[in-house]
Design goal:
Blueprint (H helix, E strand, L loop, with lengths): L1 E9 L6 E9 L2 H20 L2 H70 L1
Helix pairs in contact: 1-2
């Protein structure tokens, strides 16, 4: 489940809105950061100090994103390792199937040879 957040505020005298937003995968650290960003937002808006808030929120977002990228990298490596294991297992199954076929053909040939020798 994804948790969305956004912070909007006017900076300076212009009418340009500054926006910071993103999505966090639901998790303890992300929730804590969102709550902290929300708390900082309420404080900064009350004091009309938006710039530090946006910087803090941006840093929290970047740090969380870096942690997720790291975790994603680990998951990708694990997935690749599992794919390699699966491919090896498939190859081994094919080899076993081929050996079984060879054994079956050898058995058939021996039975035919035995039958010929018995008839003679």
């Amino acid at each position: 489940m994804w948790v969305s957040f956004e912070i909007r505020g006017r900076l300076g005298h212009g009418s340009n809105d500054k926006f910071l937003g993103g999505k966090f995968h639901e998790g303890w650290q992300a929730i804590v950061r969102i709550v902290r960003v929300d708390f900082l937002a309420r404080q900064a808006i009350a004091r009309h100090e938006h710039e530090p808030l946006l910087l803090e929120a941006r840093n929290a977002f970047i740090n969380t994103r870096a942690e997720w990228d790291s975790e994603k990298g680990e998951l990708v490596r694990e997935r690749e390792a599992l794919k390699e294991e699966l491919n090896k297992a498939k190859e081994m199954a094919i080899e076993a199937e081929q050996r079984t076929e060879v054994v079956r053909l050898e058995k058939e040939a021996l039975q035919q040879q035995y039958t010929k020798e018995k008839v003679e």
